[in-house]
Specification:
Helix content: 10-25%
Low-confidence stretches: none
Shape: globular
Order of helices and strands: EEHEE
Mean pLDDT: 91
Structural class: alpha+beta
Strand content: 25-35%
Strand order of the largest sheet: 1-2
Number of strands: 4
Radius of gyration: 11 Å
Length: 57
């Protein structure tokens, strides 16, 4: 299952290996939020896995 999203980075670049708290804007907001909250963590995909994320509520 996948959801299209925009990562909200603010005015700072995000570098490989860096960990930080960011926001996401999901195009299917309610469906994505419900599924990802249940999962607790998810992978970031841009043609391949580029990272993983943990849900913080």
């Amino acid at each position: 299952m996948g959801f299209d999203a925009l990562v909200i980075l603010g005015d700072r670049a995000f570098h490989p290996g860096e960990e930080r708290r960011v926001g996401f804007y999901f195009l299917s907001a309610d469906e994505a939020a419900d599924s990802l909250k249940k999962a607790g963590r998810f992978f970031l995909w841009e043609g391949r896995t580029i990272g993983e994320a943990q849900v913080v509520v």
